[in-house]
Amino acid sequence: MNRDEIMAVIPHRPPMLLIDEVVEIEPGRRAVGLKHVRADEFWVPGHYPGNPILPGVLQIEALAQTGAVALLSQPEFRDKVPLFAGIDGARFRRPVRPGDTLRLEVEIIRLRGTVGKGRGTATVGGQVTAECELTFALADPGEVRP
């Protein structure tokens, strides 16, 4: 899936759309996405000046978006809004910098109704950069109020 195909499935939009491609998908079970980390991204000037490192929270969000693609690719969840309900065991192992390609692998390990948990691992060149378990809920758009 390219960015346009991803945006047809999940509600995220630039600058907060943090995945560029989905290279593997088993709807409802798992997905593998890629983020090509660029030097012109919004966070580069401030994190950190002269030594840019992709914030860990954005790696976690990119994993969550990858998991959302896996879930929202199922017809029964089409048009749902994915929401964070928790992040467990988050660990950051190695910096991610502009020029890196972040591989985002997410497996859905539990789903009951519209609440579940996924396990995510981000890597660059085969080295783990971040890992965590994500708890999520899928809501109807009208249930998410400003």
UniProtKB/TrEMBL annotation:
The active site is at H47. Keywords: Cytoplasm, Lipid A biosynthesis, Lipid biosynthesis, Lipid metabolism, Lyase. The keyword Ion transport does not apply. Signal peptide: none annotated. Its EC number is 4.2.1.59. Belongs to the thioester dehydratase family. FabZ subfamily. It is an enzyme of class 4 (lyase). One of its GO terms (molecular function) is (3R)-hydroxyacyl-[acyl-carrier-protein] dehydratase activity. The gene is fabZ. It is found in: Cytoplasm. This is 3-hydroxyacyl-[acyl-carrier-protein] dehydratase FabZ. InterPro entries: FabA_FabZ, FabZ, HotDog_dom_sf. One of its GO terms (biological process) is fatty acid biosynthetic process. CDD domains: FabZ (cd01288).
